[in-house]
Specification:
The protein is of the alpha+beta class and 244 residues long. The strands form two sheets. An eight-stranded mixed beta sheet has the order 3-4-5-6-7-8-10-9, with helices on both faces. The protein has a two-stranded antiparallel ribbon with strand order 1-2. A hairpin with a 3-residue loop joins strand 3 and strand 4. It contains seven helices and ten strands.
Length: 244
């Protein structure tokens, strides 16, 4: 963020009794709620709280279809099923990250995982991460619907900031964030070392005041009348939001 950007933010703030620039007041603020362990259902998919025993076999088979899925994650790939199940079981036991399996509504098979993480109800901030969409989920309506269901729940729970972070070199992740309506906020240089290499982290976010318009656009995109008989979209997500 440049000094000019800071000046823009300051212009939107106010001044205290000492003449210092401060942020606008947040009136009647109540902390957000912790995400409950419950399933989220849509037309194309379900998000179920991760269960290593029930979801593990299908996930392992789906993820084996393309090893590139693991490149930008700090763990994996897993050569043996037991190693993967042990990893899933460890994640299942943790409150944060809060993992879900994405279950295809047509096949009833788990085809991807995703998680809330860095959950901070007191500050109203929650991050989306650990996205691992198998080829059976990529570029399908269920993938977008899964993102919609998680956003919808987060803002209904009272969060005011919804984050997406990824390796700055992970172009598909950056493009996905922008397609969904996240705003790019900048780079954290040399933020991590993983798999023996540097990671600069790209930060994106959606704020609660931006969500109503994004929600309308996503619901227009997900509506039955936006797909032809073969299941192909008739309007892009950007078009459904009123963009080009």
């Amino acid at each position: 963020m440049s000094i000019a950007d800071v000046d823009v933010l300051a212009a939107a703030g106010s001044r205290n009794a000492l003449g210092q620039m401060v942020g606008l007041p947040v009136t009647d603020w109540q902390p957000a709620a912790w995400p409950p362990r419950r399933s989220l259902s849509g037309r194309f998919c379900r998000l179920e709280p991760l269960d290593a025993a029930s979801h593990g076999p299908a996930l392992f088979a789906a993820m084996a279809a393309d090893e590139r899925n693991w490149t930008y994650l700090s763990y994996g790939p897993f050569a043996a099923y037991q190693d993967y199940q042990d990893w899933l079981a460890a994640q299942q036991a943790r409150p944060d990250p809060h993992f879900y399996a994405i279950v295809d509504g047509a096949t009833d098979l788990a085809v991807g995982v995703v998680a809330y993480l860095r959950i901070d109800p007191a500050m109203g901030c929650i991050e989306l991460g650990h996205l691992n969409f198998s080829p059976a989920l990529q570029r399908r309506p269920a993938a977008t619907e899964a993102m919609y269901l998680l956003m919808l729940q987060a803002f209904e729970l009272g969060y005011r900031r919804y984050e997406w972070k990824c390796d700055a070199l992970n172009l598909p992740s950056r493009q996905a964030a922008e397609r969904l309506g996240f705003r790019f906020e900048g780079l954290f240089r040399q933020a991590m070392v993983y798999k023996g290499r540097n990671r600069d982290t790209a930060w994106f976010s959606i704020l609660d005041k931006e969500w109503p318009a994004l929600r309308q656009g996503m619901e227009r995109w997900l509506a039955p009348d936006n797909f032809d008989a073969a299941g192909r979209q008739l309007r892009t997500l950007a078009q459904c939001r009123g963009g080009d």
